[in-house]
Amino acid sequence: MSLPSSHLRPELAALAPYNAGLTVAEVASRPGVSRVAKLGSNENPLGPDPAVRQALEAALQRIAIYPDPVGRTLAAKLAARHGIAADRLVLGNGSEDLLAVLARAILRPGDKVVTLYPSFTLHEDYARLMGAEVIRIGLTPEGGVDVEALVRAVAQPVRLVLFANPMNPAGVWLSPQELGRVLDAVHPEAVTCLDEAYHEYAEGDDYGSGETRLSTHGGPLVILRTFSKAWGLAGLRVGYAMTNSGELKRGLDLARTPFNVNLMAQAAAEAALDHPGSVTVAAALVRRELPRVKAAIEALGLRVLPSKGNFLFFDAARPSVELAEALLDKGVIVKPWKQPGYETWLRVSIGTEADNGQFLAALSGSL
Ligand SMILES: *Cc1c(COP(=O)(O)O)cnc(C)c1O
């Protein structure tokens, strides 16, 4: 028996490299760039609470030993914060780790996965890696979540319903009523995973988090949250899953690597949770700056979608990759979208006032 010519699984051939964007160092070395505004990855420009630094210094004493494989202290703090049992929580090396773990735990070749489009690409990639088929529900012509199409799709016998709310990159979101309709329509045997990476920015009466449904939803439900966005810990990689299903909790634990959240990350997240005021400050910055940036982009004649995240998605009406390149020459990192139908759209994070000003000046000078 001979092996196929490539050692790679055929599922990998269909995947594109993750569109991670450039680092500050890469852009700072460009001629003429004196200041870099890193607005491509939705990080919190204010960083975490200062207590995190102290916790990391203390944790340095312990780096010769393995971390707690289940993060007992962190899980207990999260359980208390959310009013759920610690044995319904799974920690991840970022929530993207949990997306991969969930896919490994439940998806079989040929399974169907429903997601919203344009999508957070990892929602699709890990599904395809497992041999599953991705069903995309696009936006309405007005640029909103197509709740009707989503309700129809999730009622089918699919394995997994997985989408971000607010959506990334689109920024649009489901209201509590809309989310309720979708969850009520989900096929009884499907797993639902709501990726709430931007929850801390979106919180409010018109935003529907799945958290309140953990105690009432009939089917298996997973809610993903992360310390990478509003909590300001993207470099340390910590996310978590909350679930109403003991079976899924067991499956996720079996499918993850045993020490997936490192010791420094656990210490930082614990300290961050003890000092949540920095999240309020980060959310207030976005609430102040996002409407200003949105109005300024619109004033240039471009279409911008509403957003409850710390970012905006806009149609530049020209190839996004070329515009992003022109912005790089002015020290501004944004994310040009590349998925079919959105090749003229870009996603820009809300940064500090200075970052946002630099972006708006660069944009108006590049059109
Ligand atoms: C940023 C982001 C994540 C990734 O978060 P990590 O916890 O850093 O892995 C997950 N989902 C969505 C929708 C995101 O935008």
From TrEMBL:
Pfam families: Aminotran_1_2 (PF00155). It is an enzyme of class 2 (transferase). The modification N6-(pyridoxal phosphate)lysine is found at K229. InterPro entries: Aminotrans_II_pyridoxalP_BS, Aminotransferase_I/II_large, HisP_aminotrans, HistidinolP_aminotransfase, PyrdxlP-dep_Trfase, PyrdxlP-dep_Trfase_major, PyrdxlP-dep_Trfase_small. The keyword Amino-acid biosynthesis applies. Belongs to the class-II pyridoxal-phosphate-dependent aminotransferase family. Histidinol-phosphate aminotransferase subfamily. Homodimer. This is Histidinol-phosphate aminotransferase. It comes from Aquamicrobium soli. The lineage of its organism: Bacteria, Pseudomonadati, Pseudomonadota, Alphaproteobacteria, Hyphomicrobiales.
